[in-house]
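pipeline stage [seq->struct] | target=nitric oxide dioxygenase | organism=Micromonospora chersina | residues=373
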Amino acid sequence: MENFARLLKESWTLVEEDRERLSGHFYARLFLLDPALRALFPVQMTGQGDRILEAIVTATQTVDDPESFDEYLRALGRDHRKFHVEASHYETMGVALLDALRSTAGDGWNLEYDQAWREAYASISARMLAGAAADDNPPFWHAEVLTHERHGPDTAVLTVRALQHPMTWQAGQYVSVEAPRHHPRVWRTYSVANAPNEENVLEFHVRTPAGAAGWVSGALVRRTRPGDLLRVAAPMGSMTLDRASTRDILCVAGGVGLAPIKALVEELTRVNRTRWVHVFYGARRPEELYGLPGLEKLVAAHPWLSVTPACSEDPGFDGEIGDISEVVTRYGPWTTHDCYVSGSAAMVRATLRALAADDVPPDNIRYDTFGNL
């Protein structure tokens, strides 16, 4: 296993700096082998290749952790049902992937690398197919938009009801969402911002930069209205509550990274009796702390909960000033806490560094990153 993992990681260094070429060759070969597959993908392919390759690379980089490897791939197989991927497609994709790797790597590629990737892909596809076959849920749920609230020019909070079939998720998980009227076959992941409920209602917090080209986030913020229909795929992710733990809890949220933190706090209002929960919620300016009123209501009802807001670009803010990762360190240490971190990639990296400097055990930290697409 050690040598196998080494070959995969070593060979990946030959192509990782040229992902655009790798992606281009992969899709050109894939659609040449089976032209009918083109209909499963968006009209505009920008970004699509990176996501699929990222999933494959993530899988190959976790082969030295078989338990995580298996769980991740089975979930990935369940998720890919939304693309209408069939068993025969996996074989075609494997041929295209190997061809793209050989072409992109050039003279540095060898037979050992080729065999390692063949075996890795066979293992990947087998687990994905097993995960898909074991799933009794539909490939996706149709979901009706119930409410849509704008918070400034670039943020919206919306609720949807999953139709036709009960949906089961855990607080802290995320789902893929498609807005078929605006961008068919383009999916974007969003954390569910509320704890599970019997009404099949999910809440999403969506941000897209003002003036951005759009895609799914732009459509959800600017063009979605109550009554519209979306598609929502099966829940994924492991940033969930550890019910067996008795440790107090630290939650750090930046921007719309509040979504899974809010869901976790809602879940805790149902089950928590003994754990102190500290939420740090940061943004650049006060008006971006759109979720603060809701958090303050929860604080008033639950004495074990505290919320500390912070702004990084408003020195007059009546609260903590600075990046949320810096603010958290002022209140430590957090070495005896379960820590949940959610926000932009830069914010998460900075917070993880701060927690590492505080000697928080890595096993006590779970996190999610949010981009702007």
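stage status: PASS
auto-comment: The first strand starts at residue 140 and ends at 150. The chain has eleven helices and twelve strands.
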